[in-house]
Amino acid sequence: MSLYTVYDATTGEVLRSGYAPVSMVAMQAGTGEATLEAAADDATQYVDLTSVPAIAAKQTMAPVTTITTGQVVLDGLPDPCIVACNGQEAAVTGGTVTLAFDLPGDYEVTLSAPPQYLEHTLTVTVP
Q1: What does pTM read for this prediction?
Q2: Which residues sit opposite 85 in a β-bridge?
Q3: Which residues pair with 106 in a beta bridge?
């Protein structure tokens, strides 16, 4: 028996892991999927496809946050990145997003850029 991981052949997202006879590992992948003979945790790892596919740790995001009256600018985001706040979600490209707020207060912003990055949630206080 061998540990295996099935991943999305285009993005490297880990889809599932398990055990199978070595001769049957490749059969565990469906259309658009591929396998590696190793275990991976989909919450903390992905398959790096830059050269030879290999399991890698997801990276953390560390956006630079600039807060002014009524707006928050997040810079240094992965490209692309999904930004969610106040029940709205948007895909952001270019690594920077400006969020506008009508009222001062604390707002929770969630950033996701699967599969290479861990989801990141931050609370911003808008004056």
Answers
A1: 0.86
A2: 88, 109
A3: 125
